[in-house]
Write a structure and sequence with these properties.
With about 290 residues, the chain is largely without helices or strands. The chain contains three helices and eight strands.
């Protein structure tokens, strides 16, 4: 368990239904065709929101992963993450790429408002962090992974993650270098696919740390906890400090034991709400009347 997962706390959530897979390229394409929706990655950038940025990069685009040629200092994320003008959900690696024959892969390069727009169109919602984690566990309370405690039971790969030394050596033991079609790996105990690896998934909660007394405790188990304060998610002193951050869950195909062992139900990661990447997607839920 990582320090960012702590402290462990018990919560309750009301009933809900969750899509059994992340929203796919084909599903998002139907939404875009029906509504004319334009994603954040396709919008012009406001220079005032990015003080000091290279003007040449202030063009519509998104973050794309590029492996390094060899081992590098893992503190320097700009060695493998590159802002690529023109990258967006239809062109996941930038101009010249396409999603042809990738209709069943998770849609990527979607910012938080893109995910919420799709969910509203579909008559659904994004899950809270608690709802997402409850669903990911699949009934295995306390297990390390969504399927149990063994990473590869009987030698079977259970999720699309990174095998080898990140960010340069991808052994592709799971058969995939980047995203994989949804349902390519076994479902968890609740019949949900890709709750670990493949793509990170947006939640509706804003990100706050769970240390330093920032989480309210009470005598009772919190019911349907949600973090709705964008201001509380700001990170003063860090790049993009003025941009709120949401919780993302599940890890991705870029998560490796030597860098990001976050394809676990307990793991969580902050993501600026205006950011889209090649390993970030979402899925939807439908709450019952009491949710």
């Amino acid at each position: 368990m990582c320090s960012s997962d702590l402290p462990v706390r018990r919560v309750e959530v009301d009933g809900f239904w969750m899509d059994d897979h992340p929203v796919t390229v084909a599903e998002f394409a139907r939404f875009a065709a029906a509504t004319g929706y334009v994603t954040v990655a396709e919008h012009p950038l406001d220079p005032a929101q990015y003080p000091g940025a290279d003007p040449a990069l202030l063009r519509p685009g998104s973050l794309v992963f590029h492996p390094t040629d060899g081992p590098v200092d893992l503190r320097g994320v700009t060695q493998w993450w590159h802002y690529v003008p023109g990258a967006q959900w239809r062109r996941p690696r930038g101009p010249g790429s396409s999603v042809k024959r990738r209709g069943e892969h998770p849609v990527t390069h979607v910012a938080a408002e893109d995910a919420e727009a799709y969910a509203a169109w579909a008559g659904k919602q994004l899950p809270s962090e608690a709802e997402w984690e409850f669903a990911a566990r699949g009934g295995l309370d306390g297990a390390v992974f969504t399927w149990g405690d063994d990473f590869a039971p009987g030698g079977t790969m259970m999720a699309n993650t990174w095998q080898g030394e990140f960010p340069w050596q991808n052994l592709k033991t799971d058969g995939w270098e980047a995203t994989s079609p949804v349902r390519s790996f076994p479902a968890n105990g609740y019949g949900l696919y890709d709750m670990a690896g493949n793509v990170w998934e947006w939640t509706s909660d804003y990100f706050i740390t769970r240390r330093g007394g920032q989480v309210q405790h009470s005598c009772c188990t919190p019911r349907n906890p949600r973090v709705t304060s964008a201001e509380a998610s700001l990170a003063p002193g860090e790049p993009g400090a003025h941009i709120p951050r949401r919780v993302t869950k599940g890890g991705s195909h870029l998560c490796a034991p030597n860098y990001c062992l976050r394809y676990r139900p307990a793991a969580r990661q902050p993501q600026a709400i205006d950011t889209a990447t090649c390993h970030l997607g979402f899925r939807c839920i439908l709450r019952d009347a009491s949710g």
